[in-house]
Design goal:
This protein is of the alpha/beta class and 469 residues long. It contains 13 helices and 15 strands. α2 runs antiparallel to α4, α2 packs across α13 and α9 packs antiparallel against α10. The longest helix is centred in the N-terminal third of the chain and has 30 residues. The protein binds zinc ion.
């Protein structure tokens, strides 16, 4: 016999092995689809993704959270990191270096929103994005926002370690200035990404407490921009097929109820109002009561009216707060001649919230008339619509939580986030994790590594699913 098999036998052998390999692959894929609950594409490395293969490097993530917290203008455990400050610039390069370590392609826009992209095998499709912010108000904590940026990078690294290959590209975003600390505009980066003309206009005159303009501050941080560059920051609605944000709850519900994951269904719509009353003032002893027009009492009456109108909505989701009430001249023996109020009101129902604003305005006019004071300002500073999370993203987050055997509940975000503005250009979803006593915006802010790692896993699995859709 010849040591080489005749050609027809060889061909048959090759054909049979090819068929058995293919049917083996089909069986594996079927098992994976049944197990994970979503279709697995034929791309070979996707086959290896299963919830149990997701291993989060919690120790490394905690180290990064601590390293980032060190870029602060106040001593630990507090964190203070203000937009375009020296510490903010250092923190930004830290994030960019982590993105490069994760082999992401890094891009930065004119105002310093930072993007790190992992190209999918169909890179032409709209990407799936996730991210949050790293700026921190004075004397706050190290988890607000940070968990959604460093956690997003760890989600990407986790997927890479499990040999997952995304179909759509996956992108991590670090948003510029979610906090309004320096220029009074919250969610600056995401508002501009969503094409907000109001934010673009507001930035033209914006100055900080030291009278430094937004553009000079940006320049000092290395962003050499002018007004004309701002509209270029905006992204089209075709940029992302989904946007996700992982965030600490900043409220006590998840911790109190012992639930691991909060799946956000809607973000309440904030509005803020500035009101000024003016009266004649006068000596606290000499001017008799019938002759007074007290701007301070007008403000006090309006504050109570805010509470009354909010409660009258009949919904637990309607809230209103008079967080600022200033009296001029602010002396014990002087009738207030001017008063200034700033009112924050929110609801998940925009119409209901706008009704509250109308009632507050009506009360302000009536109080001014009744008390003989002048209503010299009633300005609705911002009146953002609420955002509903996308149904299919909610389903994907719920499925991921179930696959990971994590307790979860649907909830509303009463604080707002960059997601509120990303929802204008992309289907959006948010994942909450518990935080100690609901503390946030103070040094005691804390989330356990276990809870953070759970959030990262839910994020990773949801990103994986959405990237294959
Ligand atoms: Zn935040």
């Amino acid at each position: 016999m010849s040591p080489i098999p005749p050609l027809p036998f060889l061909l048959l052998f090759l054909l049979v092995s090819a068929i058995s390999a293919a049917s083996h692959e089909d069986a594996t894929r079927r098992t994976m689809e049944e197990f994970s609950g979503y279709p697995i594409h034929s791309h070979p490395s996707v086959l290896s993704l299963s919830p149990s293969s997701l291993s989060v490097d919690a120790v490394g993530l905690q180290r990064q959270i601590d390293e980032l917290a060190a870029f602060s203008d106040t001593p630990k455990p507090s964190v203070t990191r203000i937009l375009y400050s020296e510490k903010d610039v250092l923190a930004r390069s830290y994030i960019k270096s982590l993105m490069k370590e994760a082999a992401l392609s890094v891009r930065e826009d004119a105002v310093g929103n930072i993007f790190g992209r992992w190209n999918g095998y169909e890179a032409g499709l709209p990407a799936v994005a996730t991210g949050s912010h790293i700026d921190a108000i004075p004397f706050s904590g190290k988890y607000d926002g940070v968990v959604g940026v460093l956690g997003a990078l760890e989600a990407i690294n986790t997927l890479k370690r499990s040999n997952f290959q995304p179909r759509r590209s996956l992108e991590v975003i670090m948003f510029t200035s979610e906090e309004p600390t320096r220029f009074g505009i919250s969610c600056l980066g995401s508002r501009l990404l969503a094409g907000s003309e109001a934010a673009t206009d507001a930035l033209k005159q914006a100055v900080d407490g030291q009278n430094i303009s937004f553009f000079d501050a940006a320049k000092s941080a290395g962003y050499n921009i002018c007004q004309e560059d701002l509209p270029n920051v905006s992204l089209t609605k075709e940029s992302y097929s989904a946007f996700l944000e992982l965030h600490i709850e900043q409220g006590p519900i998840l911790e109190e109820e012992g639930v691991s994951i909060g799946i956000v269904t809607a973000i309440a719509a904030p509005a803020s109002i500035k009101v000024d009353f003016e009266g004649n003032g006068g000596h606290a002893g000499a001017v008799l009561m019938p002759a007074r027009n007290d701007a301070g009492l007008a403000a006090a009456e309006l504050a109570l009216a805010v509470e009354k109108h909010v409660l009258a909505s009949g919904s637990i989701d309607t809230v209103g707060t008079v967080g600022i009430l200033e009296l001029h001249p602010g002396a014990i023996n002087s009738i207030p001649s001017r008063s200034h109020l700033e009112i924050d009101t929110r609801d998940i129902d925009e119409k209901r919230r706008n009704t509250v604003i109308e009632k507050i305005q009506h009360s302000a006019s009536k109080i001014a008339t009744d008390r003989g004071v002048k209503l010299s300002q009633f300005t609705v500073v911002n009146q953002d619509p609420p955002a509903l999370c996308d149904e299919s993203i909610i389903d994907a987050m719920e499925a991921a939580s179930r696959q990971l055997n994590l307790s979860h509940k649907l909830m509303i975000s009463r604080a707002y986030h960059d997601s509120l503005f990303m929802a204008r250009i992309s289907p959006m979803g948010m994942i909450f994790i518990p935080c100690y006593k609901g503390y946030s915006h103070k040094p005691e802010e804390y989330a356990s590594m276990e809870d953070i790692a759970n959030g990262v896993k839910v994020l990773a699995l949801t990103l994986a699913k959405l990237s294959l859709d």
